[in-house]
Structures are given as structure tokens and as C-alpha cells.
Amino acid sequence: MKTIHALAKRLQAGEVTSAALTEQYLARIAELNPALNAYLTVAGDLAMADARTADDRLRRRADLTPLTGVPIAIKDVIVTKGIRTTCGSKILADYLPPYDATVIARLRAAGAVILGKCNMDEFAMGSSNEHSAFGPVKNPWDTSRIPGGSSGGPAAAVAADCCAAALGSDTGGSIRQPASHCGIVGCKPTYGRVSRYGLVAFASSLDQIGPMTKDVRDAALLLEAIAGFDPNDSTALNVPVPSYQTELERGVRGLKIGVPKEYFVGGLDPEVAACIRSAIDTMKALGAEVSDISLPHTEYAVPCYYIIAPAEASANLARYDGVRFGLRAGNGAVSLKAMYGATRTDGFGPEVTLRILLGTYVLSSGYYDAYYRKAQQVRTLIKQDFLTAFNAVDAILTPTAPTTAFRFGEKTADPLQMYLSDIYTISCNLAGLPGVSIPCGFVNRLPVGLQLIGRPLDEATLLRIAYAYEQATPWHTQQPEAGISQPS
Fold first, then answer.
1. What is the CB-side half-sphere exposure of residue 197 using CA atoms within 13 A?
2. What is the extent of the structural domain holding 97?
3. Which of 79, 111, 295, 423 yields a CA-CA distance of 20 to 30 A from 73?
4. Is 174 known to be catalytic?
């Protein structure tokens, strides 16, 4: 697999042009996407125009960055001017945004080439990518299995080398869990580290954009490019962005890593647990001090999340009314209310409908205090658990997901079992902390992910630990059999 940093060297040395590289990726997408369904929109003409612009910058040696000329994919929940943005939903099936999200503007300024938009669970609501209105994404390691969700399309595209890297979004694990299932690196930054302007909202206090890459160095490069203050986002933090790359080589000797006992209980696949314990042994061998810790309110994370997230979703999705943009149904309706109902009935899938109903219920008169207010109080306790733990350790190590990728249809009949797929990732969003998933082994030829969680705004330490582990193990070099040659 070709990484951003490897491609940047070749591009800047003149060994390959961005146009030639982009053509190869577009050909690979055309070959593999019918089987994977990872892309919803391939922006071939615009990508080639971006590539020619990048080649001009490369020839002139003007404003070069590690992303200049590198082909990138975007989750279809991030708006892109002139490129269809659907959020995996019928209600936005033909929506062409009039502006770029801040992260897209920053990628364009860096000279990146945008190949297209990747499939996802509708409005980012799902853990398996079975809830896209445009069909499920297939896992490149085994196409009978899910790629994870909701950023399943970007994860599959990166794993199958249908892009150099991608941007995803993470509300309760939607970058890290599919990264685990597809054997790539996924980084959810601290809430506020990356602008959400232009990220179509699911749960505004939880959503965060982050990189999905083939190795840790690429995650550092991509995060540097998109992080930073943005006056268009009132939640963006006005703090300096460090050079994550320069921190990578410092190793882990002397760092303290905590392992929460609550994460190694029933529901964790024993073979997945064995991979995590092997990773812990590797960390110790590298010089890290590993100790057991407790996060006592962990058991409340899933119910807490599934009150707060649907509540915020019910408010955010109220804007889809068939009047201002997107699908309009029921043009023959006798009232505005009937038109709203027809539009939302035709436009929203069952999982989105379920969460809107749940969110509306917990916010309704008579139930607000019993559910939503109580969930926010529990959220504070969960955050405090982490802050207390960070008085003793520099990072926390956990599994990313309790199992490897499961088969299609295996959990759709039981929403609770599906929601428990994110049991190890949800707390990180509730507390607003940074988290990263890296490959740490295989079970029956399916990837296993290791999660690292850090202090607020301390992505540098997480990436440093992840890089040390990655360099000591072979897992990130493994890739699925894709059936055609790699882009050169």
C-alpha cells in the first residue's frame, strides 16, 4: 500500500505526476467499487483538474506540502462544493453543496486531490454500514462481512488502496471501529481540535472529523493539515496545533499506560482479548509502564450515549422538511404538515427514524429530567473517571471493538447487540477525548484493532505511542487481496 508520505516523496522527486497517480486510483476504484460499494460519488473530472493544478505547483516548487498531489477520499457527511453530498440518505440524494467544509478548504489549500465521496450509514447512524440508503459497504478482507460504521466507506477505500487516505467522522466510534474492522489507522481528535463547519450534524456535542490512514505517520500528517481554530465553528478550540510528526520518534520508554479492568469483561471475544494482551506485552517490551486502572462508570456509557445522541439528532434532523433543500415528497398533500410527513417518510430510513423517535421522546415534556438531564449528569461522571485516571497515566489502552467484523445481517434483528459494537469507543466521545485505533493482529484472517485514549488535546502522545507499537509489529503492512495491481 502506498502511504501519503511515500507518495509525497515520489511526487516531489518528480518520479510520478499527480495526474498519472490520480488516473491509477480512478481506474482502481472503477475496478473494485462494484464489489465494495465504498464510493457513492466518484469526482473523476474534478479530481483530474485538482491533479493538474497540483502538478503545476510541483513543477514550480510552490507552496508544497506533504499532501500536494496526493489523492484523498471524503466521507459523504462532509460537504464539498460542487460534489454531491448525500449523507447516505435518500433525503439528500441529489444535494450539491454551495460551499466547502473547513477541512475540505484546508485540504484544497494543501494541494490534495479529492477523488470522491464515500458510503456511510445514513446520517452517520450505525455501526455496520448496513444502514446506507445506497446499499452496504463490503469489507475488503471478507466481502461477506461488514466494514464497520458509520465510516465504513472510507475505511474500506483506504484498506483496499482505493485512495491514499480519507477523512471520516466519529460520533461514538465511527472512525475507530471501522478502522479496527478494516485493519487501518483511525484517529478521533479531541472535541474542538478540528472544525465541524461543513460536517452535516448528527449529534453536535459528540461529532468530530478525523483521519483514516494506512499508517500512523499519515494520520499525523493529515491531522496537522486539518486541525486548528476556525471562526466558523463556535466549538473549535483556539489553541496551537503541534507538529505531530516530530513527536513520533520519541518512543514510549517511561510513559505510563493504563488498562481499564471494566473493558475486559463478558462480551469481549477471547481471541480479540489475546491480541490486546499481546499488544500490552509489546508495549512493556518497548519500555512503557503498564498498569491496571478503573473507569467505574463504563457500564453506563452505552445507555447514556443512546439518550444524548438521539436527542441531539432529533433536533438536528428537523431541518429536513422538504422546503429548503433535499427531497420533497407529497406535492399533492393538502397541508404543510402532510408534506413534511411524506418527505420524512420517504426520505429517512428505519434506523434514522428510530433514533429521531427516541430522541424526541427523551426530550418531551415529562421525560426530559428523567432521561436527558440524567444522561448529561452521567456523562459528567464518565468524563471525571477519565480525568482522574489521567492523574496516574499518560494514555489508556483498550480494545477498539469487542469482536472482529461480523457477517451481514448478524445483528440487525437486535439493535442492542448492534449498539454494543461501540461499547469501547463511545466513552471517548462522551468525554470529548482523543482516541486512535491501530491494527494489532488478526483472528481468522480478520483484523483486530487496539485503541489508545489520551488527555484532552494530547493527540501527540497518542500518535507517539501508536507509532512506537506500529514500528515494532508487522500488522500495518498487511493488506487484503484486492485482485489487481497496486497504484505505482
1. 21
2. 4-250
3. 423
4. yes
Residue 93 and residue 151: Cα distance in Å, rounded?
18
Per annotation, catalytic residue among 89, 127, 174, 427? 174
Residue 33 located in a structural domain: yes
The one catalytic residue among 2, 18, 75, 132:
75
Provide the sign of the torsion angle of the four alpha carbons 282, 287, 291, 294, taken in this order: negative
The answer for 330, left when phi > 0, alpha when psi is -120 to 50, beta otherwise, is left
Answer yes or no: is 272 within a domain: no
Could you say which residues of the chain have pLDDT below 70? 1, 333, 482-488
What are the residue ranges of helices labelled H in 102-226?
102-110, 152-159, 176-182, 216-226
Of the listed 132, 150, 151, 427, which one is catalytic?
A: 150
Could you confirm whether 75 is annotated as catalytic? yes
Nearest to 53 by CA among 109, 116, 117, 118: 109
* 3-class SS string, 442-470: EECCEEEEEEEEECCCCHHHHHHHHHHHH
CATH number for 35: 3.90.1300.10
φ, ψ of residue 330 to 5 degrees: the values are 70, 40
Residue 202 one-letter amino acid: F
The reply to whether 244 falls in a domain is yes
Task: Give pLDDT, residue 486.
Answer: 42
Evaluate whether 234 touches 210 at the Cβ level (below 8 Å): no
Give the global pTM.
Answer: 0.96
Summarize pLDDT for 186-238 with one digit per residue, the tens: 999 999 999 999 999 999 999 999 999 999 999 999 999 999 999 999 999 99
Please tell me the distance from the alpha carbon of residue 67 to that of residue 109, in angstroms, as a whole number.
10
Nearest to 331 by CA among 233, 340, 54, 398: 340
Please report whether residue 311 resides in a domain: no
